[in-house]
Amino acid sequence: MYFPTAVAKTLKDGSEETISMASNSPRKTLFLSLTKSTLSIWRVRPPVVLASLSRAEVSLKSHGENLFASWAPDGGRIVIQTSASHLVLIRVQKIPSAKPYQASSLPHAAQRRFLPGPGEGQALNGYRLSLEGVVRIHGDLLCVSPRTTHILFTTKDPPAVQRIPWPTSQESEDGKEDESVTNEPPQNKWIGHDTWLLEENDLPWLVRSDVTIVSVTHNRSSGVEGWVTSDGRAYYVFLFEEEEGAAPGDHGPQVSENDSSADGDPRPSGLTDGADTADVILNWSGACVHGYPRSIQAQNGTVQSHESTPIFELPYSERATSIAFNSPFSLVAVGTEGGRIYLSNLPINNLPPLHSQLLTPPSDHRQHRRSAGGVGSVLSMEWTSDGYALAVGWERSWGVYSVGGRCVASGLNFEGDIDESSFEDAFMDGVVALFWAPGNLELFVLAPPMGNTDSQMFIVPFAKSTLTSQQSPDNTRYAVLQMDQAVMIYRGADQPDMSVINPEADVWQHVKVPLTYMATNWPIRYVSISNDGRLLAVAGRRGLIHWSAISGRWKSFADVSQEQAFMVRGGFLWYNHVLIVAIESSRSYQIRLYSRDLDLAANNILHREVFTSPVALLSLVDNSLLVYTVDNTLFHFLILPTEDSVTLHLCGSISFEGIVALPSVVRGMSWMLPPAQKQIGEPANDLTVATILLLLGGRLVLLRPRKVGSHEVKYDMQILAERIEFCWIHLGGIGALENSLWGYDGTGVRIWLDALTIEAASVNQELDAYHSVQESVNIPLNFYPMSVLMDKGIIIGVEQETAARASLPFAMFRTLTSTHLFLHHVLRYHLDHSQLSEAVAFASNYQHLVFFAHALEVLLHTVLEAGTQSDSDMAAETPASTLSENSALPLAIEFLDHFDSALDVVVACARKTEMSRWRGLFDIVGNPKTLFETCLESGLLKTAGSYLLVLHNLEQLDETHADVIRLLRRALEAPDWVLCRELMHFLRSIDETGAALEQALVEVGMKEEQIMSESGEDTVGATEC
Question: What's the rounded Cα separation, in Å, for the pair 850 and 794?
Fold first, then answer.
């Protein structure tokens, strides 16, 4: 769903020192770079240095060189870890009056030509970096993780987890903040301290207590942490409060039970000097998510004693190096020394996950010297903010995986050769650190130093599917790719059949978003396209604009203050020419309706609907608008067009309390109404009879209503699949695809036929629930699907390609369009279930396509291969030419007889299949001699010519070659000179003496030279063939 595009940009800070790390701020608008002596603050857009702080030589000798830097959750402080076990505290202060860069002195008329780029319209603010203090940590500092009120760190001796509060100054307490930079801040005082020792059973859930914690990763959105221990295990950890009358020992400051900070740290309600006055103590709870020994049983969130159970050592290649949390999909990724990545669900009730998905690192099939030792260990990982993609940096490569586990890009597999002496894209050889920019359309990567270039920081541009920000399962026709400043729309659905399947055809329309909007509203947050593909809407940080394919023009707010007064939150959808928008404005949450025919202005809003809580997502089914809010409520509106406007009519609402635990994980929604309800039912009752589809993170859930009383409705929940990245539904149309559900899980497309058909559902009386909907078809794909062209029987997708040239010092990223026929998969399902009439009815809808015969040929080939494989599995001694009685081949042949292209399909399939299987095939299809005669009688001369090869290999041609001569005579009468030439080649191939060819020419009364000249081929050249 994320694909690198174009070429990477290079960042340089002018420093001669090697950059050891880079990290973005919590709000992702800034990032830092760190060398052994200098800390620099950058702005993400435009990527320029705003402030730097270099430590003196005396400080480096006394406190050690810089090793690692971390942002505080509020972005106002930075903690630097040094090589001498010290913490250097840096305060980051914004100075709006400072101008880090001055405007050029170009004339006013010339400056108009230099417009600000996306995100560059706002003024650059200055920043000041000042030293707040230095903290010495006893016991060998291992890692540090700043929090809102405390600094968390781990030590080696003793093995412990500790935290100290941020220093507070007397001036700050008096309302005065000292902005001076000083090396010795005597006004600071330290308050409170907490320590948890690993060897004293303070953390009983650890698999081993004789370890140290070498890495701590904090997830601000969920408040949980990831710990990596020295034995290579990874843990899911969180801090909780435990009440006791009197806590033994010093457990730090008194805390309030219901007062927590935004980043998950319990916030002290009263600061103390460490006195033992707390009635609430803090404890850590966790679960092992990598390296957990299955022989140890976990009960009540704690691990049983390990004394009687040997704890195995993890192999070095399986030891964890980094951990990354995916809150939208409730996943955790663990990188290892061997380069592998393990995906697991977050633990439930502190029990280790039972299963994990292995993501193997990419391999270079060309055995390039860059990857001779593999990709190396995982050095850094980060998920996109929407959770759909994971960026990974290895020692000798980089890559991006989708949430389903598909590798969509890597630094190993590329086309072409590179000149190692001049190649400057150092990140292709390894990445030390990486992070995503706002909008997830740029990946910042830090590469290790490379001999032939002084560049270490790069920006890799990306394109992503609009489904990452807004799932529109009902619109499967148009694929839309969102870029940093443009939108690409797939137009193959409107092209002829051959243009769709031609990989060289230009089927993407490039629509550039106006710079006047992008300069101040970057990044793009939502993109929506209408069902007919003619209208497009784009929403950035504030406001929105929309575009028409007919006029080719954009419409935006004439009054910039009205544009900046609201932001799109929850998405937007097109209903004909009306744009339905969920917005937030000054803590007011609304649904607004804008018309494409009117100017964008506050006085042109067609309708407003006010909500008490923010809108999470919108879904449109026919004229029904579904609005799901963050308070776990689903609202149903009818869209009512009037003579001069369009309004919304509230039909009802329902709470999903007890069904959806976290409204934030709902990524898609749709429903299906019974036909009787659509025609004569009251709209107010729609919610009680509708089958509802929910995409909860990666879990595809079906809710089917069932009346349990006169006025009560019970929902039967069925989890259809896990790790679904996105889904489509098809509520009307073609045969078995009507009411079908499509989902992609990272490996292939999964189809549930009639999943939303309410009439087909039956109740299991024993279980008192509906029978489960079973998966019908699974289509493996070697590319990433983007849309389904139902009327053409094709899945459209994209695959990424990296190209390199020896003459260029950089790599080029591009996306290629790929297609896959799904007709034979659905037909195979019908045939396997002996549904001949359904298969014929379904295929009849597609027989007008130019590639319909090819689809039937693929179907026959798969059935033939599957039948032979089934025979091999049942009895190894059975010849490959025979087919089992249970094979679907006889039914497939009967199915083909309903179409005119059956004879062509059979012989084309036979010629592409091993000859050892021909007899078994034609035992069911029929004697090839009979089929040859049928082709002659039907005038299918070319098809008859194809059957000659079958007859020859099955030894059914007589020595006089009478069948070949008859076909040659018919070809001369046609005349079909190309077929005549091919028949002559065939006769010469089966009789090298040329006697058979000479006899045939005599019998038909022609000469070889005459036929060759008529067919346009040189006689001498033909004789040599």
Answer: 13
